[in-house]
């Protein structure tokens, strides 16, 4: 408890210092672009300090919640710092009025701290749904949805979730079951945390974006679709705070990916590989957008290639022609079923 109190005091001290910094930059006779740059540099330096602190050995703050997750004090502070950056950008752009009390509530708002949905400072406490009684039913259904994901995650942990399980000589059915359960389990963990935090925010009456509204079969069709459909509020934050101000170019994509890596932690080789692959994939799809086809077969082929690459990197499944063909058939059938559902809705 004492350790948590020290962290809270530290966050409050940083918030007050940054508030004074942002107000001073806002009043300075500089261009909006230069003011944004000052805010970006200050936040990047803060992220570097946080990354260095997290790498210190023997720090109890690195222990995850319930000693069973990777979400710790440092991870919470990364989201806190992103909201600090949002406040700074909106403050210096004069799109929001600085208010220290609101700023403190915004940074320390519990549903946003727990790795939950991102909310912009100018929209925080402004758009409310307190008067809508339907929010209780919505929050209850979303809580049930999160608990369902939790049950699936527990099932996966007891069956196929181990990426190092010996499936090199397994049958085709066992390979498919292992790969699909493993992928669904990796999707279930963040979905559980994000949507449960969203439910808590809705109960409190705060209007925020639902981060995960589709399953991995629909969002995993391309690198670009994954970034738009998974952790939607974080994607919108990066787009509004970095991508658009930098000109919405290929360079902007690289900068956003680099900042995403910094946001998740520079010391992890896994994050380096993940964001390196995503940067290459998003840039490739952006440069070759004319080659993208709405044809069901071509789309299923591309999704199969991405899925095979993903399972090859995250499991020890031996890839052969039968495995590739079987996954292609499953993805093609899934797209066909979704297309028929969409036509039925029309």
Automatic annotation (TrEMBL):
InterPro entries: MB_O-acyltransferase, MBOAT_fam. Its main location: membrane. It is a multi-pass membrane protein. Keywords: Membrane, Transmembrane, Transmembrane helix. Pfam families: MBOAT. GO terms for molecular function: palmitoyltransferase activity. This is Wax synthase domain-containing protein.
């Amino acid at each position: 408890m004492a350790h948590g109190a020290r962290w809270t005091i530290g966050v409050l001290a940083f918030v007050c210092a940054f508030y004074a910094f942002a107000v001073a930059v806002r009043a300075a006779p500089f261009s909006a672009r230069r003011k944004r740059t000052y805010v970006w540099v200050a936040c990047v330096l803060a992220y570097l300090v946080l990354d260095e602190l997290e790498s210190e050995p023997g720090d109890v703050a690195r222990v995850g919640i319930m000693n069973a997750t990777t979400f710790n004090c440092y991870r919470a502070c990364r989201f806190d710092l992103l909201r600090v950056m949002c406040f700074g950008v909106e403050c210096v752009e004069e799109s929001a009025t600085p208010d220290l009390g609101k700023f403190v509530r915004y940074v320390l708002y519990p549903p946003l701290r727990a790795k939950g949905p991102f909310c912009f400072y100018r929209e925080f406490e402004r758009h409310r749904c307190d008067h809508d009684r339907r929010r209780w039913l919505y929050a209850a259904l979303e809580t049930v949805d999160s608990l369902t994901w939790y049950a699936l995650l527990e099932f996966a942990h007891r069956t196929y979730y181990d990426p190092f399980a010996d499936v090199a000589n397994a049958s085709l059915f066992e390979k498919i079951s292992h790969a699909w359960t493993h992928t669904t389990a990796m999707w279930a963990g963040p979905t559980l945390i994000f949507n449960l935090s969203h439910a808590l925010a809705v109960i409190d009456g705060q209007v925020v974006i639902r981060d995960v509204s589709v399953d991995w079969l629909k969002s995993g069709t391309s690198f670009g679709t994954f970034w738009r459909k998974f952790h939607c509020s974080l994607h919108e934050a990066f787009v509004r705070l970095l991508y658009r101000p930098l000109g919405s170019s290929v360079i902007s994509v690289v900068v956003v990916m680099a900042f995403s890596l910094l946001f998740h932690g520079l010391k992890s080789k896994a994050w380096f590989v993940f964001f390196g692959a995503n940067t290459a994939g998003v840039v490739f799809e952006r440069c070759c957008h004319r080659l993208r086809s709405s044809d069901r077969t071509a789309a299923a082929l591309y999704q199969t290639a991405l899925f095979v690459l993903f399972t090859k990197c995250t499991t020890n499944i031996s890839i052969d022609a039968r495995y590739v063909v079987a996954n292609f058939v499953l993805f093609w059938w899934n797209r066909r079923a979704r297309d028929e559902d969409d036509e039925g809705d029309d």
